[in-house]
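Re: that chain you flagged

S.,

Sorry for the slow reply, it's been a week of failed gels. I finally had a moment to sit down with the sequence you sent. For the record, here it is as I used it:
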Amino acid sequence: RFSFVWRWPLTPAGADMSMHSYMAALIAAGDTVPSSHLPLLPIDSFGAYPVGFQALTALMSILGGIPIYRSSMLMEASTLAFLTLAFYAFVRVFWDRPSSAMVALLVTFLPRNPQHFIDWGGHPTLLALGLLVMGLACLPWLEEKMSLGRWGFCALFVAASVFTHLIPIIGLGYAMLPVGLYVMIDRLHTQR
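Prediction finished late last night. Pasting the structure tokens below so you have them in one place:
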């Protein structure tokens, strides 16, 4: 996942990654989340798009002393690696280590997506998905009484997902509608 950071290309691909990079540049230049897109764009407000990915990119640039275009590239590679680890953590809850590793690698390397996200720059979506999957890895803890710290740990991943991109959490909500309906019908049926 990290090999293309040193081999090719110079900057991340896609118009979306250009937007994420300039938003990260604004954050890094001001050392805070700005109130507008000025002076780069004539947009008087900032924050219509969740800024979690951009804030991490800016932080990587500031702490690492590297230019934004390189921290964007490193963040892109880190996001893809994190997504694989997140799927491993989720599947590991149910299966053994070798099976979990194989499934995580197959899910993240074999299909068209998430590989296609590299072309257009949809890495905040992948990072949000990885964070949400890490939050879902906490689900087995729901069967036992969880401490406040564990609730906070799970909530942290879900909140980070929301602040990075909304599509994965909205998709999960839509996917859970039929599941919730099935559970309700099943409970009503078993009560009779």
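What I noticed first: The CA atoms of residues 110 and 124 lie 20 Å apart.

Talk soon,
D.
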